[in-house]
């Protein structure tokens, strides 16, 4: 999409190391493995949704990543990184 938030997210995502990209995949889908047929079959949908005071969330069953419309890209990067980092060890994955 052409929305600035989505463009900023993908620009940030491209800078992540491979391990962090796998962590994001696990956060959004419940698995860090590439599906049969390749990553094109993941079916990830980014939804602009949520309170900017909160971290992004994901619905692993449906492959939806709920990204609040943070006021600036730096805050978005920080919150996405925190959400991925904090999702392990609390029964979320």
Taking pLDDT < 50 over at least 5 consecutive residues as the criterion, the unreliable ranges are none
**Number of extended strands:** 3
The helix/strand class is alpha+beta
Radius of gyration: 13 Å
- The proportion of residues in beta strands is 5-15%
Number of helices: 3
Query: Could you state the order of secondary-structure elements as H and E?
Result: HHEEEH
Distance between the termini: 28 Å
Mean pLDDT: 85
Helix content: 40-55%
Strand order of the largest sheet: 1-3-2
| Dominant shape | globular
Q: How is the main sheet built? A: 3 strands, mixed
Structural commentary:
There is one protein chain. Helices cover 41% and strands 12% of the residues. The protein has 93 residues and is of the alpha+beta class. The chain has a 3-stranded mixed sheet, covered by helices on one side. The mean pLDDT is 85.
What secondary-structure arrangement, pairings included, does this model have?
Elements lengths: L3 H12 L2 H12 L15 E4 L8 E3 L4 E4 L5 H14 L7
Give a short summary of the structure.
The chain is an alpha+beta fold and 93 residues long. Helices cover 41% and strands 12% of the residues.
Which short descriptors sum up this protein?
about 90 residues, 3 helices, globular
């Amino acid at each position: 999409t052409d929305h600035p938030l989505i463009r900023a997210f993908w620009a940030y995502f491209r800078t992540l190391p491979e391990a962090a990209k796998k962590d994001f995949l696990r956060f959004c889908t419940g698995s860090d493995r590439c599906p049969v047929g390749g990553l094109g079959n993941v079916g990830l949908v980014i939804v602009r949704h949520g309170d900017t005071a909160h971290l992004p969330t994901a619905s692993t069953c449906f492959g939806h990543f709920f990204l609040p419309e943070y006021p600036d890209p730096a805050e978005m990067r920080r919150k996405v990184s925190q959400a991925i980092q904090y999702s392990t060890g609390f029964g979320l994955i």
